[in-house]
Amino acid sequence: MGTAIVANAGATLPYQVPGQRAACQLVWALSALALAVLLAARALHWVHHRDQARAHLLDPAVAPFHGCLSMALLAVGAGTLLVGKDLIGEGPAVAVDAVLFTAGTATGLVLAVAVPYLMVVRHRAEASQASPVWLLPLVAPMVSAAVGPLLVPHLPAGQAREALLLACHAMFGLSLLAVLVMLPLVFGRLITGEPLPPALAPTLFLVLGPLGQSTTAVNQLADAAPHAVDAPLAGAFAAFAVVYGVPVMGFALLWLALAASLLVRAARDGMGFAMTWWALTFPVGTCVTGAAGLSRHTGLTAFAWLAAGLFLALLTAWLLAAGHTLRGLRTGRLLPR
Would the pTM of this model clear 0.85, i.e. be above it? Predict the structure, then answer.
């Protein structure tokens, strides 16, 4: 999903340069290939090492990461419709996105219940263990809310379009309220507990996920509303996109500054590369798409420039994470021993 968001964000930027579309297509193809490989590997792991796979669900440090599966399916599916259609055609792209959206949404909704349930009855985590990683399974339905509206114009007019639009709006509320319950625990731990270990400092950027993705969601819902509901209600969706999105983007920028400052502190304390660096990609990408949506609905150049600046930060983070990951795989440091 950290790779797919680069393609998705690049395709929706207010500013486009020659070759940008082709580059987004290449990155989307890479993300689709990576998803296929990882799905196959995950399936084989469940078949041949089911005991270990089940143990991961019962491990409080690992279980929240299962939410990434849903978001990966959804991000690649959205990319298929945004840029992949240039390569495979619009009809196949709609079909692929529909399959990935359905699978990703179903998985995300199940995990949004299952992981908190396990945290309550099995994990028994302490307040001092609260981590931004806990947000991962709760953000997955918000990703569905953000990418689902892309499919609305491709459904038959009438009930089908309205049902999908309002279902996405319901998932927006589901995820937002769940995050608002969990986020105080995470911030409280940062204030009252020990600082995160340097290797976990990049996970602070995960908080940007629900902020940027919810802003993206309300703007995407506003774009799709005229295709599904009457003009007065569509106008309410458009107004809500601005009334909600602008203050939340403001808080996202505040958190971005805080997380970046703590990341610099961790780097000074000797932070080396870890797979947590990928936490710098998808959450920042959601802020890019959120700012781009606000640019569309407000007409403000400031939001267009913000989207472009955040995209450069996203691209830098992706190049660093991808480069170190490839190096780790080549040297064997990231492979199981």
Answer: yes
